[in-house]
Amino acid sequence: MIYFDNAATSGVKPSQVISAISNALEKYSANPGRSGHALSFEASHQVYSAREKLDSFFNGYGSEFVSFTSNCTEALNIAIKGVLKGGDHVVISCLEHNSVVRPIYKLQKEIGVEYSIFDVYEDEMKTLRSFESSFRKNTKLCVVTAVSNVFGTILPLASLSAIAHSRGALFFVDGAQAAGVIPVDMKNQGIDCLCVPGHKGLLGPMGIGAIIHNNLDFTTIIEGGTGTASFDYSQPSGYPERLESGTLNVPGICGLSAGIDWVNDYTCHRIFNKETALAKSVSDGLSLMKNVILYGDLPHGKHHAPVISFNVKGLHSEQVSLKLNDGGVAVRGGYHCAGLSHRFMGTEATGTVRVSPSVFNSEKDVNILLNLVENIAF
Amino acid sequence: MIYFDNAATSGVKPSQVISAISNALEKYSANPGRSGHALSFEASHQVYSAREKLDSFFNGYGSEFVSFTSNCTEALNIAIKGVLKGGDHVVISCLEHNSVVRPIYKLQKEIGVEYSIFDVYEDEMKTLRSFESSFRKNTKLCVVTAVSNVFGTILPLASLSAIAHSRGALFFVDGAQAAGVIPVDMKNQGIDCLCVPGHKGLLGPMGIGAIIHNNLDFTTIIEGGTGTASFDYSQPSGYPERLESGTLNVPGICGLSAGIDWVNDYTCHRIFNKETALAKSVSDGLSLMKNVILYGDLPHGKHHAPVISFNVKGLHSEQVSLKLNDGGVAVRGGYHCAGLSHRFMGTEATGTVRVSPSVFNSEKDVNILLNLVENIAF
Questions:
Q1: What is the CA radius of gyration of chain B?
Q2: What is the least distance, in Å, from the CA of A336 to any CA of chain B?
Q3: Phi, psi for residue A27 in degrees, rounded to 5
Q4: Are A257 and A290 contained in the same domain?
Q5: Is pLDDT above 60 for B1?
Q6: Is B276 found in the same domain as B231?
Q7: In this structure, what is the dihedral angle of CA atoms A366, A369, A375, A377, given to the nearest 10 degrees?
Q8: What pTM did the predictor assign?
Q9: How far is CA B352 from CA B4, B174, B289, B295, B332, in A?
């Protein structure tokens, strides 16, 4: 099967990732930070090393401010609910995933948090004006995706964060599609909190993610054993423990760590270039087919990450993706957990067919995909 | 290294577990329930199969009422915060872990939830009287561990749940130490919600747990993409999705599934008997050493799971565990994230040395441990 659904999870995990996980299960299956024996220390060492890699990869604020989560969604919930209180206002983009929209909508219903949505345009100045006009006196937070998971649009994080900070608001980023594909630099882009999955561009396994922040004073949504201060019934205030209750996913963390090593060796830059070249071949090919509708900017390297959405006239996106599956190609049709994005793009009726190549795909894969679409769209 | 820290995480994972995880990473690294292609379907099938196994293993209320979490602590947070509101009263045992105590303490501080603690005795009738006298008019919930993670005490779940239900309260169980070691039968023991880790007695990897319930109307603490109803900004109400936001830990679920298969093949009964025999050898040996203090009932199969806590007079438990580590034996010293238990047992000053054998340990391992303790306690 040719796998073009890497925006959902990366289909090929490097062999180092798989062996790191097996190794963790065989060699130091012990609970880190819980016991004083050698195996527990080894597990702790691996976890600490992974924290350092993530901190360094995203130019964060110190490895103690990297906490592991089960996925990017949990990280976003911890981040958003960790700072918003009743009466606060939050600004989000029109391209947010339900991992941002649903927690905020819940806070609106339950404690009266308010939110505004700004529009994203090809013209960056227009985007920034829309963003700026969304602020209110009580704006506490902005949550912005680095890359649209449906259309691949890259948002101008540094410019947005400068505006947010000038208004006294925190600037949080959903790095779900960006991590490991486009450079994300927390200090230089002014990101106060970054939430990432481990299993997409960072090439780790499903089941691991992280919240990385600038020593923010988060209230917690999950409390429990941390291996520290056992007699204190309050959650410990120190990081990373404050946001890490219960046993950590050590095999997942080891796999993620090996994935980051792979990305560092290959370099994010080369990954982006290779995936963008493949995405460009996809969009170039699709743009020649008269019954195909392409959405968003074409991938040209500045405002577009390697995620392509299209439709075939007269067909629902899920019909197209099923036909592609029958032809041996895995893509995702439907709404991609991002109703907001489809409302913005006017694709509520059909959703879109999403093609998300990885560095492990080839031009041959693209040709097979294009031939199949041509037959479907004929 | 001889590993006697299985109450923290099981040190030996069956080879089937490790190969199930590798297989998931190599063969169907695709997001379940998100896309319509064959690899995503295969991942969904594996997840569904694991739900069915958990439901059947614990005699639950249907596989749709099994939701996966990252660990038992997350499951307990979801369960406890999913039903308690300001003004509600909750009853917990004196042997609860911080995964129960800390979420409840947070609810007390933030929304005025009240709690009472009942004492646990060797005499079951005394335990039940203490439990019953803890109820108030506004008691909504009881949360009880099936097995003390420090002392191995088994709580009389069926009798406790009968009382809870007669008082109109829900009965939730922390199955952290019980799952895969002692039989837990939700329907026959009257358990409304059971929270379990995958990485202890069920022999799966760290990073996976589950909440299993009787179609309860939980409010959520985490919302996000579920692969369903993308245009709805509210979290979907259907189970299992309501409690599963973001990408699931598919490799972890596959590993847990293989772990359950292993336990089913070997049988929980034989695991309990083997581990209890080993624990009995440990406690018999320790009871002959005059400078050793043993806590809790000795393991005789009725009120005691295979977890032993002891101390050496004049030494802190962590000193003893470090000496054992130097001798090549891994145990856990300290407080085990359960301050409440130590307050009850009067072991606040020293904590305890905890020995938790698994089915993969042998009498030879026990002898090595006992020889080391004898030298330390001499």
A1: 21
A2: 7
A3: -100, -35
A4: no
A5: yes
A6: no
A7: -90
A8: 0.97
A9: 14, 21, 16, 9, 8
DSSP state, B184? -
Q: Are B40 and B31 in contact (CB under 8 A)?
A: yes
Predicted pLDDT of residue B373? 98
Same-domain pairing of A64 and A83:
yes
Q: Looking at chain B, which runs of residues are DSSP E strands?
A: 2-3, 66-69, 89-93, 114-118, 139-145, 170-174, 193-197, 209-213, 292-294, 308-312, 329-330, 353-355
Give yes or no for B23 touching A (CB within 8 A).
Answer: no
In a domain, A7, yes or no: no
- pLDDT(A70) > 70: yes
Q: What is the pLDDT of residue B288?
A: 94
Tokens in use for A208?
A: 């691991």
Residue at B1 is within a domain: no
**Preceding peptide of B240 cis, ω within 30°:** yes
Q: Which of B265, B292, B324 is a domain's end point? A: B265
**Cβ separation A206–B73 shorter than 8 A:** no
CA angle B298, B304, B307 (to 5 degrees): 80
Q: Which two tokens stand for residue A215?
A: 């020593």
* Structural domain harbouring B292: 268-377
pLDDT in tens, B48-83: 999 999 999 999 999 999 999 999 999 999 999 999
| Structural domain includes residue A309 | yes
Task: For residues A311-335, give the mean pLDDT.
Answer: 96
Query: In this structure, what CATH number is given to the domain that contains residue B110?
Result: 3.40.640.10
**Cβ separation of B70 and A336 shorter than 8 Å?**
no
The answer, yes or no, to whether residue A301 has pLDDT greater than 70, is no
Residue B122 lies in a domain: yes
Per the CB < 8 A criterion, the answer to whether A59 and A157 are in contact is no
Confidence of residue B372 (pLDDT cuts 50, 70, 90): very high
Which among A157, A207, A312, A359 has a CA at the least distance from the CA of B43?
A207
pLDDT digits (tens, 9 = 90+) for A82-141: 999 999 999 999 999 999 999 999 999 999 999 999 999 989 999 999 999 999 999 999
Cβ-based contacts of B106 with chain A (< 8 Å): 220, 223, 234-235
> How far, in whole angstroms, is CA A226 from its chain's centroid?
26
